[in-house]
Predict the structure of Peptidyl-tRNA hydrolase.
Amino acid sequence: MTDETGPWLVVGLGNPGREYAGNRHNVGFMVAELLAVRLGGRFGRYKRVVADVAEGRIGFGGPKLVLLKPQTYMNLSGGPVAALAQFHKIPADRVIAVHDELDIPYGQLRVKLGGGEGGHNGLRSMSKSLGTKDYVRVRFGIGRPPGRQDPADFVLSDFGAAERKELEFLVDRAADVVESVVTKGVEPTQNAYHGV
């Protein structure tokens, strides 16, 4: 049984280091950073896990969010996630992974509970470490690579000039989606944001 007053763990997936900061693969970090600003929290290195962590509440006395940016590389993200979830006693259905998604056109956001990982190494690592796939995903569409570009190269490249014109707005909307999942639930959030 989930404690309705307990915290939520919001995981922004990405790779550490300045050279990756603007990559499509790092959009989860971007959303987590904006949420920290909204909540009045600041990221700091967490002693117990290889991660940057911030905490805060949505509104005055609202739900508590623990924001996590793993400082391992993407394919090892699950270790810090599972350790922090265990420390805060957060069940998997109150864990939200924010990540880039190749199979959704750029600019679209999708929310789902559970499901496959779609080849995403960060999700694969999370599922393995949590021992379940039953956590929430906020999927930030980045679209497929142009021409014959390798998807692995595409996700590790920066957003293009045209994409960057919309990026701030889309990151803001993704943060809205996370807050909606926490305050309203997955299904109402899907109804409000899918198809937008």
